[in-house]
Design goal:
Number of domains: 1
Strand order of the largest sheet: 1-2
Radius of gyration: 21 Å
Largest sheet: 2 strands, antiparallel
Helix content: over 70%
Strand content: under 5%
Length: about 280
């Protein structure tokens, strides 16, 4: 019998193969697929309303063109809700679920590096969430953008930026919450507080606290302009800071690498005590 310990890459891919199937068919994925399907339903309704020659969407009584409506959905539904919630629910569960189900012992007694367990499950999270989110964005794009004479050809480069930005957001949020899940005993509540408490409040305040959020760097890269007549856009314009795109991308990549490394180290060094 070959008892050699596989390499980090081999071990991670073995865990990835098993974890991806479990994630795709889990109850959590069914629920989150319904959440991601929400924007598709909204887009379908807007398209049907537009087909009967009625304004599908208005701001202060003025009809909004399809590309603008699509940009609003990227801002409010995907970046501010769907991407963080996917990161919270999946990222915090990578190790926490194994602890709660008392199956983590079986993973760690196998002849593979402990950090490879988290890395493989993290890669499965990325594959699973990308398979859920990006098709949703594509459906919303093709349903909404043609409304009001919007051009798919003219806005397609922005769509590619959106897809890359959402994928990067899933990577960073997943790494952050994977670290929280590996380090804390009740990570879900802390993750929800960070994503929908800390980030929401600090983004509306002046000063440097917003630099300790993921959303601050992501919103810098969004290719769509915010609506100029909303209270949110007024606050953002008042407290706006010019941040070059390379700086924002560099900060996000540094967060991704840093939190993923911290998560792997936490799994390798922490002793997980199972509750009776």
């Amino acid at each position: 019998m070959d008892t050699r310990v596989p390499s980090y890459t081999t071990a991670s891919m073995r865990v990835f193969d098993v974890a991806l199937g479990e994630m795709l068919w889990s109850r959590r994925s069914v629920f989150l697929a319904l959440v991601v399907g929400g924007p598709v339903v909204v887009a379908l309704v807007m398209r049907l309303v537009a087909l009967i020659h009625a304004p599908a969407f208005r701001i202060d009584g003025v009809g909004v063109a399809g590309p603008v409506a699509f940009g609003l959905m990227i801002w409010y539904l995907y970046l501010r809700f769907i991407v963080p919630i996917l990161g919270v629910f999946y990222g915090t569960s990578l190790i926490a679920d194994e602890v709660d189900d008392k199956t983590i012992t079986y993973l760690f007694v196998r002849p593979i590096p402990r950090g490879a367990v988290l890395l493989g499950k993290y890669l499965a999270y990325l594959a699973c969430t990308v398979l859920i989110v990006l098709p949703s964005v594509l459906l919303v794009y093709f349903l909404i953008v043609p409304i009001g004479g919007g051009s798919i050809a003219a806005t397609f480069p922005d769509l590619l930026k959106d897809l890359g930005l959402l994928a990067l957001g899933l990577c960073v949020y997943g790494a952050l919450f994977a670290f929280i899940g590996a380090q804390l005993r009740r990570p879900l509540l802390f993750g929800l507080f960070f994503a929908f408490g800390w980030e929401v409040v600090t983004l509306s305040l002046p000063g440097y606290l917003k630099r300790f959020t993921v959303a601050y760097y992501l919103q810098t890269l969004v290719p769509h302009a915010m609506p100029q007549d909303s209270a949110v856009s007024f606050l953002q314009a008042w407290f706006a800071e010019s941040l070059p795109a390379p700086v924002a991308i560099g900060a996000l990549l540094a967060m991704l690498a840093g939190f993923l490394l911290l998560a792997v180290r936490a799994v390798e060094r922490r002793e997980y005590v199972l509750e009776q």
